[in-house]
Amino acid sequence: MPEKRKITLKDIARELNISVSTASRALKEHPDIADETIRIVKAYAKEHHYVPNVLAVNFRKNRTYNIGLIVPELVHHFFSTVISGAIDTAKKHGYNVLVSQSNDILDDEITACRTMLASSVDGLLISISNETFEGEHIKEFLAEGKPVIQFDKITDELETPKVTVDDFEGAYQAVKHLIGQGYSKIAHIRGRKEVKNANERAEGYHKALEDHGLEYSSDWVKVCNMINEEEGYQFARELMESPNPPDAIFCITDLVALGVLKYLKEAGFRVPDQVGVMGFSNWKLAEIVNPTLSSIDQHGYEMGVNAAKMLIHNINNPEKREEENLMLKTNLIIRESSNRKKFQN
Amino acid sequence: MPEKRKITLKDIARELNISVSTASRALKEHPDIADETIRIVKAYAKEHHYVPNVLAVNFRKNRTYNIGLIVPELVHHFFSTVISGAIDTAKKHGYNVLVSQSNDILDDEITACRTMLASSVDGLLISISNETFEGEHIKEFLAEGKPVIQFDKITDELETPKVTVDDFEGAYQAVKHLIGQGYSKIAHIRGRKEVKNANERAEGYHKALEDHGLEYSSDWVKVCNMINEEEGYQFARELMESPNPPDAIFCITDLVALGVLKYLKEAGFRVPDQVGVMGFSNWKLAEIVNPTLSSIDQHGYEMGVNAAKMLIHNINNPEKREEENLMLKTNLIIRESSNRKKFQN
DNA sequence: CTGTTAGCGCTTTCAC
DNA sequence: GTGAAAGCGCTAACAG
């Protein structure tokens, strides 16, 4: 393995009997420099595999071309989709992405932010943890003039552009669809009240019931804490064993719906005939379960793409930064679990 | 938002009437420096929120405390598990992780490597694409003295430590289990012949048949190209419609097994009574499908942890680098799809 | 114990 | 067109 010492501008300058500054400018095709000089320098650089020392350039320019990306969980279909979109986009613009996860723990998120700030990313993409409200650690970025974009799980406490999915509308469409399928006693297993998405979805649910003049009962709304399969199972049992059981359950997320389906199957309820089930997020699992699960697609990849685009725009244009929020449309995916009337939508 | 200009060592030195080097050393509690000086400097630094300029430090030390991580696919349960382990470990050691994906396309992998090399990561963790054989782009890291660790999908063309799972043994155990369940005509839907893992698994399959004196037929071995659900479906059909159909199918991965299950269900075969099915990788979906899928757990998180540990060790100890490979044990997970005798193992 | 000095590799005025 | 020189912020060898 030939330990090739890297050559520097100085080496080029010395060998070619020019100054370092001329060499530097020649490589950038600076208009001042004679074409001939440019040619010669470039040729020499190429021949000797000159590669600028990025560390030096970054230092000089006070830029790293790295952006930070923090999500609650990495092993998560939706978030990995977002990350994928963000990385692909960043790459296209010459940026690398530093990825970290908070595990939905505030302290971990703070640590992750600090490390990223310390390692001098040029900007930050973040989907906050369930425990984040003030977000002082995120304000540190803004204080240093580094742009931040929030996505998916956001807080209005922070004045940054946000990329979200239209949770309200998604939930509304989901419930409207259930109503269209003839369900009339629709329950909702929702997320924590401190979490914005959860509230939006709950409101969409409400509005849909209201607009269609359907019965609403607070007994039919269950609040998840962990948002996992077990909770779905438990709440489904509570709902179905109650004196006034619902005939459809709209879940905050597919994982919860999975638990619901499991309970319904065990308890002998027929899905979708007796009980309709809707998830949210359209994970891979929705296609795999039996019966397949109707859900709302959140276009994670596009979310990643758009968030990264906005961030990079704001990094590159400190003067006219994009301040607008972006709300992506959702997509209703009808599968077996809610398709009682058996026709394709 | 107070635009706080960052203070530098120079500022501290000037204000405290000491030299920059003294300030620098005091902050590091250099033994040469008087306790009193250290106290004063630290106090001042703290009061004025001194933060060292990482870009300058990196430049000086020629280190970034960033490591690169390249996988074929990000939206992939196994790989995201590995990434999660690697990131958590890196964080613990003060490193950040730059993540990128190759989409199993050689050119993308080369680009990803180049960008990472250019952005001066201190080392690289990589699981190569299906199209990578020589890996010249990876050798560029080694040529610059930057350590590389390969994991999961590896090639022996590159002289780097490797962290893998014992594919041979995993496959052997899987097939042995099938045999123990009374299956005797066991087919294998395998991966490409150029891919090492695929070969290891195929050999484990062979060896298990051989050791138990079971019939082997090349008709029972199908070679996947895309390794997806559709191929599983198609090959299952081919196998079951052939003159001498198998009574069990061992699949290169859970996704393929999913297609197999789907075909078997449609064609009316009872699983596991008539036909046993084994996957590999133990994705989330294995617990979700119906019947649940027996599989081999590859301990992705541990793989990430170990690979990151090795890399960081090798970055920090250029003199005595770890050269050994690490092969993690797999775990047989028995679920419904192969559990014909209905007892727990 | 502390200061002086040199320098990492590059960019960018400012001269000529 | 080109060069000289300064400096980004920090570290470390050397000197005292």
UniProtKB/TrEMBL annotation, chains A, B:
It comes from Fontibacter flavus. This is LacI family DNA-binding transcriptional regulator. Transmembrane segments: none annotated. PROSITE patterns: HTH_LACI_2 (PS50932). Keywords: DNA-binding, Transcription, Transcription regulation. One of its GO terms (molecular function) is DNA binding. Gene3D superfamilies: 3.40.50.2300, lambda repressor-like DNA-binding domains. InterPro entries: HTH_LacI (IPR000843), Lambda_DNA-bd_dom_sf (IPR010982), Peripla_BP/Lac1_sug-bd_dom (IPR001761), Peripla_BP_I (IPR028082). Residues 7-61 form the HTH lacI-type domain.
